[in-house]
Amino acid sequence: MATAEQVRDLLVPHLMGQLDDTQAELDVTALDVVESGRSFTLVLEVTAYRQRWRVRLDSDRSAMALFNGTPPHHLVRAVAAEFCIRLFEWWHTKNAEKQSARLGERID
Fold it and tell me: What is the pLDDT of residue 6?
């Protein structure tokens, strides 16, 4: 069974640094994994357009497979890609949807 730190280390190469989509550029400057029972929360510090944010994204149940020993690389990439998509969804909807707004807090 992997620790939260080990899962963090698996995700860092895929999620840290500059992430781009067609409408936004986000820079992930910190990443932490907080395990809670049968799920975990990914806590990201993000800089975008001179604003700093802390965003909390809960895992899907399938992402818990990252805690099972040494997960295959394709699984790590898939989970990281899902979190990346959800991060951009948060960014684009944080001002319009209450549920999205609760996931992030401005820290500057």
Answer: 95
